[in-house]
Design goal:
The strands form 2 sheets. The protein has an 8-stranded mixed β-sheet, with helices on both faces. Helices cover 40% and strands 17% of the residues. The protein is built from 17 helices and 12 strands. The radius of gyration is 21 Å and the shape is globular. The chain has 2 domains: 80 residues, no CATH class; 284 residues, Alpha/Beta hydrolase fold, catalytic domain (Rossmann fold).
């Protein structure tokens, strides 16, 4: 059975017809007689369609055609209303023939959980301070003392508090730990403009923080967008760090490869939506950040480790004037601002520093195939898959992640 999706853009009166045959796996895209497309080619075509939407949307508004603008806005907002269901179905649902259904934990995984997994470590022993770096003021959560720094970079849409379970254990292991709110987040300076969130600027932030810490040894840890920054930093400035730790963030080369496959493309639709001016901010801020809260509700595997007060803090942070635009500008600067393209042109040299990758296999935003072939880009690689965790792996399984991290660091 074929599922037909019809997108009508009321500007130049084109009609895009997209249909997928589950038996053959082929996708037909009809736009004035387009030929049949393979899944890989369709992924590229779909990306191009998403890239055009912001321009169509703005032309409609500027032309006074608000009726059609609202119709397109509803179509674009619909995924947010069904944000990241347990089994993602947008924009296509392939029914019983689905090839990329997220892994669900089996009963035995819950039965074998230790008592420590149900009682995460204390989160109280840290202080906060403002650190000047790269002409910005960063709010930094700090713990521990010493000449060995662990710099932890959070992801979207979190803040330094996402590392609450790792700060004290790392401090007790003899490290000085810094977890900053990234630029634009929390109480860190929020510069204005797309170019302020270019990947190059984010790398300069890391260099500035390492210089401000003044330690002789640094380990860089990153999750989600923090992990993307950490990957690029290890590629461009390997001399500044002793080791690299990545939590559910794909290597840029692996992610580029996976985006050519429907299994990842179907989970990355939101990046195209985020390119649209103003509309994502309006949707994400509705109901005092209701959609932000739903992200954690849907993606957290062990909800007891993501307490309501933390989620409320993330929602409040996102609703601060200008915050959502800053957070979304990471995606816009990478795609619309061509930051990812510039980095691709710079090449992906082999990373020779020791690298630990911890990956929650129930990640609904990133497929496990992002780990395939990672050894071709990292010479000294350790991969720890965790079946009972999702995208927010360090919060889903805080004890397991902390134990793996500390043990690995002590063996360097």
């Amino acid at each position: 059975m074929c599922r037909l999706i019809r997108v009508s853009l009321q500007i130049t009166t084109p009609l895009v017809l997209i249909q997928r045959d589950h038996k053959s796996g082929c996708i037909d895209a009809g736009l004035f007689g387009c030929r049949s497309l393979s899944t890989r080619k369709f992924s590229r075509a779909f990306c191009e369609l998403l890239a055009l939407l912001p321009h169509f949307y703005l032309q409609l508004i500027e032309g006074g055609r608000m009726h059609f603008a609202l119709r397109i806005a509803f179509w674009m907002c619909k995924p947010f209303l069904l944000i990241l269901p347990k089994h993602p179905i947008w924009p296509f649902h392939s029914g019983k023939h689905s090839e990329a259904v997220p892994i669900r934990p089996v009963l035995s995984q819950f039965l074998h959980m230790s008592r420590n997994d149900q009682n995460p470590p204390s989160t109280s022993a840290c202080s906060y301070g403002q650190v000047s770096a790269n002409q910005l003021s960063f709010r930094v959560a700090m713990a521990g003392m010493g000449d060995r720094l662990v710099l932890c970079l959070h992801g979207f849409p979190e803040c330094a508090r996402s590392w609450r379970y790792q700060l004290q254990p790392l401090a007790e292991a003899g490290y000085q730990v810094w977890a900053p709110d990234l630029r634009g987040y929390g109480k860190t300076t929020r510069p204005v403009g797309l170019e302020a969130y270019a990947i190059e600027a984010l790398l300069e932030d890391v260099s500035g923080l390492l210089t401000a810490a003044g330690t002789s040894e640094a380990i860089l840890v990153g999750h989600d967008w923090g992990g993307i920054i950490a990957w690029y930093y290890a590629l461009r400035h390997p001399d500044r760090i002793k080791a690299l730790v990545i939590l559910n963030a794909p290597h840029p080369a692996c992610f580029e490869r996976e985006l050519r496959h429907w299994r990842q493309m179907r989970r990355s639709w939101y990046m195209g939506i985020f390119q649209i001016p103003r509309l994502p901010e309006a949707v994400l801020s509705m109901g005092q950040g209701y959609v932000i809260g739903k992200i954690f509700e849907r993606m957290a595997v062990h909800r007891q480790h993501m307490p309501d007060d933390i989620v409320t803090r993330y929602r409040q942070q996102a609703c601060t004037p200008g915050a959502l635009t800053a957070m979304l500008n990471y995606y816009r600067a990478a795609i619309r601002g061509k930051g990812a393209l510039r980095q691709r042109k710079g090449g992906y040299p082999t990373i020779n520093i020791p690298t630990l990758v911890i990956w929650g296999l129930q990640d609904q935003a990133l497929v496990r195939h992002n780990l395939d072939g990672l050894g071709h880009f990292v010479s000294n690689l350790t991969v720890v898959p965790i079946a009972s965790a999702g995208h927010f792996v360090h919060e889903d399984e805080p004890n397991r992640v902390t134990e793996e991290l500390v043990a690995w660091l002590q063996n360097l």
